[in-house]
Amino acid sequence: MCRKQLGAPRACHLARDRVQHCSGWLLGTRMVLGLASEPADVFCQNSRSKSHAWKETPLANAVFWAARKGNLALLQLLLNSGRVDADCKDSVRLLHASTLHPHAFPINHLWLFCEPVISHRSAARSSTMELACITVTCGTTALMVASYSGHYDCSRELIMQGADINVQREVLLERTGSTALFFAAQQGHNDIVKLLLEFGASTDIQTKDGGTPLSAASQHGHAKVVETLLKNGANVHDQLSDGATPLFLAAQEGHVTIIRHLLTSGAKVNHPREDGTAPLWMAAQMGHSEVVKVLLLRGAERDADKKDGSTALFKAAYKGHNNVIEELLKFSPSLGLLKNGSTALHAAVMGGNVRSVVLLLGANADPNVTNKNNEQPGDLTQNDRILRLLRKQTANGSS
Description:
Layout: E1 3-5, H1 13-22, H2 29-33, E2 42-45, H3 57-69, H4 72-80, E3 89-97, E4 105-107, E5 110-112, H5 115-118, E6 130-141, H6 142-149, H7 152-160, E7 170-171, E8 174-175, H8 180-187, H9 190-198, H10 213-220, H11 223-231, H12 246-253, H13 256-264, H14 279-286, H15 289-297, H16 312-319, H17 322-329, H18 344-351, H19 354-362, H20 384-398
Antiparallel strand pairs: 1-6, 2-3, 3-5, 3-6, 4-5, 7-8
Helix pairs in contact: 3-4, 3-6, 4-7, 6-7, 6-8, 7-9, 8-9, 8-10, 10-11, 10-12, 11-13, 12-13, 12-14, 14-15, 14-16, 15-17, 16-17, 16-18, 17-19, 18-19, 19-20
């Protein structure tokens, strides 16, 4: 640990050496990957050494830069030098400050600084602030960077140089659980996904939120990656911590091709999230009519409701997703009073979409049904067109 007045020329001799020798290199994969919004003071240390390899910091930073940019020649030169390890992990310097600094970010009782930024903003420094420099290993590897960035040759080189394929990322002593395969799947780099699987990457490792490569690829719409993962044993029933499955995530984002892959591989079409939200409900809310059609044809429960009692039709009606309403009406969903004490027609009237009201009335929704507050649909709007439609339907019903 080192202490130094922040008003001094440099925060400590370690920062001085780093800035002097590697100011031209890209500092750290937290900035490389764009996985954190705050700037970070990034160091590297050899993961096979128990001591801090500060003299290797410029070379280690260069490895991350080469992996990020896809510079295979530089990467090979660095790894073959024997002075930097393929499994080098990034680190951050935490500076404990007695006074809040304008460029600090609170992390429990510490403050995270980006020293390269501070070193060029001397006007913002306090001449009396004392700092305690603490280096914490973060755990992002060069293989993660290359996999995220889509550089196949660099990824292969790192693997052949002995990089640990299944190591999980950490940030500030907390394991996020992301692996190189997770990043490659998330970004849709199918060639790298195949490469990692060939060399033993696990499809089952989860992030702290329960995410897997399959859930990431499903959410981000990478159909080829999903197909590759399923062929290599990925669990179609994976769940996030909130119960969302790959099918749910694909339905939420409207990825029809992926949904077909998942259903063919045995995904449960009605499996809800912990709050009771089924894939059909989510697709209806988001307005994905093709997804709604596929899910219904594959046996989705048309009237499955959330814990609040709303159904897919109720939500689509409120949102004015008319194409979704049309698909749902083909399967004769409930038009009566729901568990939430309202009807789809009430929802359509509250949403104010005239076409939605027309569709529901055309399916014989009753404009005289009252909700839990003893209100008819017509009591919930001042829209003249909607009121005329409701009155006409009431008159036709009474005659």
